[in-house]
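pinned: reference chain
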Amino acid sequence: MIDQVARIRISLIDTAPEIWRRVDVPLEASLKMLHDIIQGAMGWMDYHLWEFEAGGKRYGLPDPEWPDDSLSAASTIKLKVLIDRGVRQLLYTYDMGDNWEHSITVEAVEDGQPGVKYPRYVDGARRAPPEDVGGMPGFENFVDAIADSGHPGHQEATSWHFDCYGNSFDPAGFDELAAKLRIGDIAK
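pinned: its structure tokens
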């Protein structure tokens, strides 16, 4: 049984309507595991670089070929350590080109429930942007283009998304079951 879990709220910054998720995460999870959870919850495909900013420090995957003394290994810091230091808010950036910034908020710390596997998806709303859409300006243009068949980029945008993902894009059509399954795979 997991002793304690943190209820985490993940919000993609600068989205309106807001794109968000809520998950329960074991306090013993590393920031690397939290990265994996965010990827699963948001439906990102883990193609790009990422990092956390928490308590005045940066955490990610250090690359020996590109030394960065200000970047600590995300696999070596546990969520519990940050919470014990009073850190309840983190910034998670995914894809340094598109620069998807997520506000990560620790909403509560609770005892784990017997028989429940963690991490666990709780709830959320709206579909996250597709990979490589061009950051927030590109996403806004993409959503406008797919919504308006008269938009000059409509055909290109809908074809691109279908070719890459095999389906059409509905910004409100968030697949909660898929998020539950992806996070459930992490819990195994």
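why pinned: Residues 144 and 151 are 8 Å apart (CA to CA). The two ends are 13 Å apart (CA to CA).
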